[in-house]
Amino acid sequence: MKIYSWNVNSLRSCETAFLDFIDRYSPDIVMLQELRAHPDQLSFFLKLVPGYGCLFNDSGRAGYAGTAIYYKDSLPVSEVTNELGDDLLEAEGRAIFLRIGDFSIYNFYIPNGNSSEERLKYKLKYHEKILNLAQSRKNEKVILGGDFNVAHTSSDLYLGKANNSGFLPEERRWFDEMLAQGFHDTFRMFEKRKGFYSWWHLRDPERKANTGWRFDYFLASDPLKDSIMNAGISREVFGSDHCPIWVEIEE
Fold first, then answer.
1. What pLDDT was estimated at residue 164?
2. In order of start, what are the domains of the chain with their CATH numbers?
3. So which residues are the catalytic ones?
4. Gyration radius of the chain over CA positions
5. Rounded-to-integer distance, Cα 216 and Cα 12, Å
């Protein structure tokens, strides 16, 4: 089973690229972030993709945030919901939960903390909620994925300073705490080198200078670790300032 995650930075703007991606890669599951649209604003083609079920979770604000998940009709999905039992995690359309077989998948669009001190505090509270979730589910087969809006180490960004949101010590410490719970950065299970990113600066739209950050992740719980076959970044896919990432799980 191959699961993708992609921050599309406006699904309406990315419609052609997204539908081409579905046609070319045929993902079993694809998690989207930053839809920037209410479902009523999306085309028929996005709401009824042949062979897929889907769930949208909009932020309630025009042109802001939102998540979605598409999954093949053939998969034994037993639950898909945007109700996580926590008001903060459910706010702003930033989370979706899906259960398939004996494991669970969470799609998160973690807030960006660079607009104000207030939003940074909000992001850190969101971090705390996800850490609590990880602690409670660490003995189950779980994938936590999406746009985390943080570069974990200096190998995960082209150039950064410790006073930049997305690379702050407290943000990176949260990531360390997630790993300490027994979760594994699936990409780093297979690739240790620097220079692999999932977001690029708008001044580098063709990604030639590779001035990027790795903001997007799949974290696998320890009970799922041995089922992770591979993971990667599809930097050849355009349509957004992010590219898709993926993880392959033994069925």
1. 86
2. 2-249 (3.60.10.10)
3. 109, 147, 242
4. 17
5. 21
Amino acid letter for position 206: E
Between CA 132 and CA 122 the distance in angstroms is: 16
Q: Which residues contact 15 (CB under 8 A, 6 or more apart)?
A: 43, 45, 46
Over residues 125-165, the pLDDT tens digits come to: 999 999 999 999 999 999 999 999 999 999 999 987 777 88
pLDDT score at 227 = 98
Q: What is the DSSP letter of 157?
A: B
Annotated binding site: which residue ranges?
7, 34, 147, 149, 241-242
- Beta strand 103-109 with 142-147 is parallel
d(C-alpha 101, C-alpha 112), whole Å: 32
User: Rounded CA gap, 178 and 134, in Å?
Assistant: 7
DSSP 110: P
- The DSSP call for residue 36 is -
Cβ-proximal residues to 20 (8 Å cutoff; 6+ apart), any chain? none
Query: Binding site for Mg(2+): which residues?
Result: 7, 34, 147, 149, 241-242
pLDDT tens digits for range 179-206: 999 999 999 999 999 999 999 988 888 9
Contact 120, 80 (CB under 8 A): no
